[in-house]
Design brief:
Blueprint lengths: L2 E4 L11 H9 L2 E4 L2 H10 L6 E3 L5 H13 L4 E4 L12 H9 L4 E4 L4 H9 L6 E6 L4 H11 L5 E6 L4 H12 L4 E6 L7 E6 H10 L8 E5 L4 H21 L2 H12 L3 H10 L1
Parallel strand pairs: 1-4, 1-5, 2-3, 2-4, 6-7
Antiparallel strand pairs: 7-10, 8-9, 8-10
Helix pairs in contact: 3-4, 6-7, 7-8, 9-10, 10-11
The protein binds S-adenosylmethionine (SAM).
Length: 274
């Protein structure tokens, strides 16, 4: 009856644990995000366990039937196209419902692009937040970057090669020229590249050659420098009262955010406090 959540390689097929292979060989059914994609991994390891498609478009519809089969005694494994299921991948609905139904949900840990990137980025790893994919639309993306610009921990997210340059430019416009950022690309694959630098340097790298924008990316943003934060706060303390004598809280917060680089919502909360 267990439902195994099995991590698979993020590029290099050798990155799979003995236990993961054992589980994939012995379960009754493998639920795979894309059966054609996972066939390559299974054939590489001579695994002939039946596979069934289980992806974001059918997860909700299929969950109840899968849980019934598990309760009837079948053993199943969930895999995604790469890395750890549920990390920006399907599986959350199934796992939460399976647990509510009393199914034993068992992890078979292994690769994940975010953790692999973190381990080699050279950016502080003591505290971090993972934000999945940023929005594809520029206005929403900028808002999302503004929301993470002032957090006190490393921010990690995934980005598609289609938007990597636009995303880097938006990061620069919100975070400025000094913030240290890491682009970890094509991890464990032939063109693996890990660059940790300021945004102007990273943008130059992306623009230097079209191939530099190809592949899969993880982006890590270093936490805001405490000194910068203190400087920003000091600046805010000085300008907010002046702005508030000339305009309402909302407009003052908007301007203060532009001048200090501090999040607009935070500036607004300070404006209405004073
Ligand atoms: N479940 C996966 C995990 O545990 O990392 C993530 C799946 S998510 C749909 C796919 C995204 O992960 C890609 O668009 C890319 O941002 C990142 N990614 C996956 N493999 C990668 C790799 N080898 N190098 C860099 N980023 C990778």
């Amino acid at each position: 009856m267990p439902l195994y959540i099995v991590a698979t390689p993020i590029g290099n097929l050798d990155d799979i644990t003995f236990r993961a292979l054992d589980i994939l060989k012995t379960v009754d059914v493998i639920l795979a995000e894309d059966t054609r994609h996972s066939k390559r991994l299974l054939s590489h390891y001579d695994i002939s366990t039946p596979m069934r498609a289980f992806h974001e478009h059918n997860e909700t519809k299929k969950t109840a039937a899968v849980i019934n089969e598990l309760l009837d005694g079948k053993n199943m494994a969930l895999i995604s196209d790469a890395g750890t299921p549920l990390i920006s991948d399907p599986g959350y609905v199934l796992v939460s419902e399976a647990k509510k139904s009393g199914v034993d949900v068992v992890p078979a840990p292994g690769p994940s692009a975010m953790i692999s990137a973190m381990s080699v980025s050279g950016i502080a790893s003591d505290r971090f937040g993972f934000f999945g994919f940023l929005p594809a639309k520029q206005s929403a993306r900028i808002k999302a970057i503004q929301a993470i610009a002032h957090i006190d921990q490393t921010a990690i997210f995934y980005e598609s090669p289609k938007r990597i340059l636009a995303c880097a430019q938006d990061l620069k416009s919100v975070l400025g020229d000094e913030r240290v950022v890491c682009f970890a690309k094509e991890l464990t694959k032939a063109f693996e590249t890990i660059k940790t630098d300021t945004l102007p340097v990273l943008i130059d790298y992306l623009q230097a050659d079209d191939t530099h924008q190809k592949g899969e990316f993880v982006i890590l943003i270093s936490a805001i420098d405490k000194n910068n934060k203190v400087l920003g706060e000091e600046q805010l303390d000085k300008i907010l009262p002046i702005l508030l004598t000339e305009m309402g809280a909302s407009k003052a917060a908007k301007l203060a955010a532009k001048i200090t680089g501090i999040d607009k919502k935070y500036c607004y909360s300070r404006a209405i406090e004073s």
